[in-house]
Write a structure and sequence with these properties.
The protein contains 6 helices and 9 strands. It has about 230 residues and is α/β, with parallel strands linked by helices.
């Protein structure tokens, strides 16, 4: 389904006549849109419209049912909603981030400690290093979300996917996440797509707005600082 040679030079991902969902039931029937490289796209729509299905398909967690998805991205980081995670999973925050780093580091970097150092740095960026040694299950919702973002970043993705990163977390964590995501796009050129219920919270950071409705996706530029 991936065919990088068909992509425009300005895009990191393109859908053409795509059908998304599950073998028993399609959720999105006619998807034709593209994601520009180094953009920040907020994805909105009613509950059940297919936002998470779209995000999981982009992330490779769901197969495409029909059509094509062409992508130049070889490494993607995925941040699920923290309340969909099994909080009882018996790992520390550091170990959780290490799962993301495993794909980005060769075995010899693990032996010589490079992976652990990098994990701690991503925890620091997400202001989560102070609870690196705590069990993931003992963290608050906002703390878990910071750890999950650090895990995604530790995989060193060129495409970061977030499923409602600010939902149900405290205001401090919201500010941290918004500031960090803005920094990633501006300074590292990372492409970001985030499902949000209130697109306006990313004013000044977002570059595009994609609406999911009636089985389709409509991609729009961010106009006058607000979702159009």
């Amino acid at each position: 389904m991936n065919a990088p040679s068909t992509l425009s030079a300005d895009n990191i991902l393109e859908f053409q006549q795509a059908r998304l969902g599950y073998p028993q039931r399609a959720i999105l029937e006619r998807v034709d849109f593209s994601i520009p490289r180094s953009s920040f796209t907020v994805l909105s729509g009613e509950n059940g419209s297919g936002k998470t299905t779209l995000l999981k398909t982009i992330g490779g967690l769901l197969p495409l049912l029909a059509g094509t998805m062409a992508s130049k991205s070889t490494r993607r980081g995925y941040v699920p909603q923290f309340d969909n995670m099994d909080a009882s999973f018996p790992v520390t925050a550091m170990e959780m981030v290490g799962m993301g780093a495993a794909a980005a580091f060769p075995w010899w970097r693990t032996i010589f400690g490079g992976r652990r150092q990098t994990c701690r740095e991503y925890l620091r960026q997400c202001q989560a290093d102070r609870f690196a040694g705590q069990m993931f299950s003992q963290l608050s919702g906002g703390q878990r979300q910071r750890v999950l973002l650090a895990r995604a970043l530790a995989a060193q993705p060129d495409f970061l996917l977030l499923d409602e990163p600010t939902a149900g977390v405290d205001l401090e964590t919201q500010k941290i996440l918004i500031r960090l995501l803005g920094h990633l796009r501006r300074d590292s050129g990372m492409t970001v797509i985030a499902i949000v219920h209130h697109p306006e919270i990313f004013e000044g950071i977002a570059t595009h707005h994609a609406r999911v409705a009636d089985g389709a996706v409509c991609m729009e530029p961010w106009q006058n600082g607000r979702a159009s």
